[in-house]
## 1
Amino acid sequence: MRNVLAAMVLISFACHVVTKKADPKVQANKTSKAVKAGASTIKKKAKKIRTSVTFHRPKTLQKARNPKYLRISAPPRNKLDHYQILKYTLTTESGMKKI
């Protein structure tokens, strides 16, 4: 049954490929070649077997970042400058030992 269906598909395909004004003998020859070739020319794609029940989204290509401009406009400044140290002195026991 499958061979017959495959042959019919090939016949219809061969008929569509040939132009409308083609010679009937040429068309018949092409059709007969397609039938003789059989279903071996049409290969069915093997079905992929699922081994897991959970669906894992495939990991796609992650390109390296190439920004047009830097998002950080100013360089990081030292937050503990001389003034800040005087303002918030270190009053821990280990700090007191060093005084």
## 2
Amino acid sequence: MHKRSWLGVIGFLACIVLVGGYLLSPGANGAADLANRHVGVVEGTEVDLAFKMGGSIKEVLVKEGDTVKAGQPIALLDSDELLAKRQQAQAAYQLALTKWEQAKKGVSVTDDASSAQIRQTQAAVEAARAQYEANKNGARPEEIAQLEAKLQAARTAKQVAQTSLDRVKKLYEEGAVAKTALEEAQMQFDKAQAELSAVEEQLKMAQSGSRREQLEAAKAQWEQAEAAYQQAVAGRGQVGLKQLDVQQAEAAVQQAKGALAEIDAYLNDTRLVAPVAGVVKSVAVQKGELVAQGFTVATIQAEGEHFVKFYLDENELGKLNVGQKATLYVPALGKEVEGTIAAIAPAADFAVKKATQELGDRDVRAFQVKLSLHDPQLRPGYSVEWRLEGADRRE
């Protein structure tokens, strides 16, 4: 969108016309009065509207002369292709979300299974070690009594684990619990079974006494249990791999989300809206026309933003300041309007010849003075007169 101003040349020509008319009028008060009068032309801020991308015009929603509000739609580009791409991007995003959720569940399942295996093999190691120690040292009556008590406790624990497993199986079949609960119950039962078997074997060996081959077998069983435990601990690395899968899946989600957001941004750019309130000055396209990126589709004359530029010589600037009020006359309206000095050029734009009694012609620098105008009846192109009363011209 570009802001443009009416050329100052128009003001210069209007100045010549008005000054000429003034000189021919019977009411002219002479050169001194004319010297204090300046003429300019009302200008307005124009905003060019263009699409950020090229395409086919689907609809033009305004026409020349329409009054529009800020944010009001001006024209639309065809968006069918983008909508199809958005559906694809939305599907890809949903798929990425699903894979991410699956990856997170995979971490949980692997972690639970790995932890259960470690606990189970650790219990087997302890049982095998105890068995080996029992075979090595032999059993005393009190140790046999302890093993019998331990056997009874192991049988009770197995029965409890069996009951719990049966109950969880039924709930799982009914869909009342997750699979992880069933796996946990099965693990507890297997652990209880292993402990019962170990205690039974310990009691049997304690009662019958240990032979050399039994001791060697117990040691081998202990070593096997220890190896299984170490393997279970090493298996924890699978959890790390699953966590890496989660990170990769999450990155895919963010990528798909970004692609979807990009298409949404393009879709938003198919809708051209007015950035300011004003009047549509021109419309340069019609429905079905192909336009390039940046091509001016319409131009809006901004509402209430009027100004006029005057070129004053250096001797007239002494009493002028930015923010100072000024009274101007608009012939087209037949009335005076109020303005405010908005800017005074810091450097001269050009020089004009002035005659002096002592030196003849000399250059006098002209400075641009811009006034903002505050009357809603003003229109671009109106002539404006500004009389500087009491200006110190020092000519």
